[in-house]
Specification:
Rossmann fold; seven-stranded parallel β-sheet; about 400 residues
Length: about 400
């Protein structure tokens, strides 16, 4: 579709949403990208299924699966990521908006001039106060917390900055439940040549691929491992040359694979160990598949220079040695020995990971129901509070 065609389509969808009667705009789910669907889907199934509510699903991306569900209780609208999205946010009339959008009211997407209750849903287990901006979560009314650490961090910031108290809901993390349900055993280990390593770093100038991707790839392949490189999608956008350099050097190596499809799962299930840095994918892999994660200790990925003021160690920092091991960048040559050590005692790793998971995540196995019931409770409270209710 041409640029003009998309503009007209987005305008029509925006107008269609505005024309909906108020009773059909009580609960709005906003999706910033197609990748949000895997986190929204289970909660929407609860809302529109067991709880019998209808929702509006408003998306920026026309390929978002949420726009293409055969579910009469989902009213889908694609408004694009430009002008109409900005106006949509500023003029939204709804009771509740549920979203994974970070930094509400801090950038171009503002809280509505009308009263709307904003509910934030996490799409990662990482902490709130290091990887994201200091005020990324300040302008939501309710936070669906994946684990106790989220609740503690948000409350600590509220006290420190004298912010209004938000409603904090013990939610959980469906992606973890999905991995636990769908996991399968990797191929049996034998000689080191049978070990399958998944290299899945975060993105940015101070991360694995940008700092020493070529060197590390060479070390792993020289050790005889099968290596799957799964770069963060932002790396392809921001610094594609670091991926291309590895492909140019090792793309034809018989034990090298490149995966750039974010929905692909075989590399997660078939590998024996993951190597990462500060990516939240490491916690998904370790806690969801009960496999060890080897962290390379590059500088912490932080967009908040004041994160230490909270006096709380971020979860992505505290769990590293508990679900795997940490290796310094100057010790890359020791990584094959460390991998072999981690894979030597799988029962111990499983016990450690299970203990971390139990302490770090709410409502394992029932997170979707917890979130949906909280959203309905908020929506019903708002109806009761309206004049004449």
């Amino acid at each position: 579709m041409s640029g003009i065609g998309r503009f007209i389509s987005n305008w029509r969808q925006y107008r269609a949403f505005k024309r909906l009667p108020g009773e059909k705009r009580k609960i709005v789910v906003f999706s910033e990208s197609a990748q949000d669907w895997c986190h929204h889907a289970s909660v929407i199934d609860e809302l529109t299924g067991r709880l019998g509510r209808s929702i509006c699903y408003v998306a920026s991306d026309s390929t978002d699966p949420g726009l293409h569900q055969d579910n009469p209780a989902i009213h889908p609208f694609c408004i694009g990521n430009g002008f109409f999205r900005i106006v949509f946010f500023q003029t939204l009339q709804a009771d509740v908006m549920v979203t994974q959008l970070l930094d509400l009211d801090n950038k171009d997407l503002k809280r509505s001039v009308h009263p709307v209750h904003y509910v934030y849903m996490f799409h990662s287990l990482i902490s709130t106060h290091m990887a994201d901006h200091e005020n990324s979560f300040d302008h939501y009314d309710t936070i669906l917390c994946a684990g106790p650490h989220h609740a503690e961090e948000i409350r600590r910031r509220e006290v420190l900055r004298e912010l209004p108290a938000k409603r904090l809901v013990p939610h959980g993390y469906f992606r973890l439940e999905q991995l636990l349900a769908e996991r399968r055993d990797a191929p049996p280990l034998g000689d080191p040549v049978n070990i399958h390593v998944l290299l899945a770093p975060s993105w940015g100038e101070q991360t694995i691929l940008n700092l020493f991707g070529l060197e590390l790839t060479g070390i792993l392949l020289a050790a005889g491992y099968t290596l799957t490189l799964r770069p963060h999608f932002q790396t392809r956008w921001m610094t594609p040359e670091v991926i291309d350099a590895i492909i140019d050097r090792y793309g034809k190596h018989p034990k090298f694979r490149l995966i750039e499809q974010m929905g692909e799962s075989d590399s997660l299930y078939d590998s024996h160990v993951m190597i990462t840095d500060w990516s939240g994918a490491g916690m998904d892999y370790g806690l969801g598949l009960e496999k060890p994660v080897l962290y390379i200790d590059v500088p912490p990925k932080s967009r908040n220079d004041t994160w230490q003021e909270l006096g709380l160690e971020p979860l992505e920092m505290s769990v590293r040695a508990k679900i795997g091991a940490v290796v310094a960048p100057q010790d890359l040559a020791s990584i094959p020995d460390e991998i072999n050590r981690l894979l030597r005692n799988p029962d111990q790793i499983h016990r450690q990971i299970a203990a971390v998971r139990e302490a770090s995540v709410f409502n394992l196995g029932s997170s979707a129901a917890a979130a949906a019931e909280a959203i309905i409770a908020i929506a019903d409270e708002l109806v009761d509070e309206k004049p004449g209710a």
